[in-house]
Amino acid sequence: MENTIQVGASIIVDEDAYRETPPERTDIVLYRDPRPGAAADTLFVKRIIGLGGEVLEIRDSKVMIDGVALAEPYLKPGSQMPIYGPELIPPGHFFVMGDNRKLSLDSRRVGPIPDALILGKVVQISNP
Which secondary structure element, helix H or strand E, spans residue 119, and what is its range? Predict the structure, then answer.
């Protein structure tokens, strides 16, 4: 998530944020590692980019949701991304990506994240 969250940063996570309302696009979330056999205490912090039922693809270093380019002001200007998709995000899942797109272990590699693995919403970031 660099540059949004720098190495050594502290975050505060609201574990109750999604009890009554679902996660939304651009929320930064804490979630459990979705890979089979992953340790239960392996956690990731990423930004929600796509929602269940949407088709996501990356073309010309732009994320497209249902064919429309997503505005991403939180990315560094000139951020490059390889072509990806199109992929239909299953209902009850979220497509997450790090803001440091080149080095991010995110849904492009591990697939969409099931809602049940999301632990909460990042509500405060204190960078060093």
Answer: strand 118-126
Instruction: Name residue 47's beta-bridge partners.
Output: 28, 97
**Nearest partner of 30 among 120, 104, 124, 126, judged by Cα:** 120
Write the pLDDT tens digit of every residue in 48-82. Answer: 999 999 999 999 999 999 999 999 999 988 899 99
Q: Which long-range contacts (CB under 8 A, 24 or more apart) does 85-89 make?
A: 85/55, 85/56, 85/57, 85/58, 86/55, 86/56, 86/57, 87/55, 87/56, 87/57, 87/112, 88/53, 88/54, 88/55, 89/50, 89/51, 89/52, 89/53, 89/54, 89/55, 89/56
Rounded to an integer, what distance in angstroms lies between the CA atom of residue 23 and that of residue 118? 9
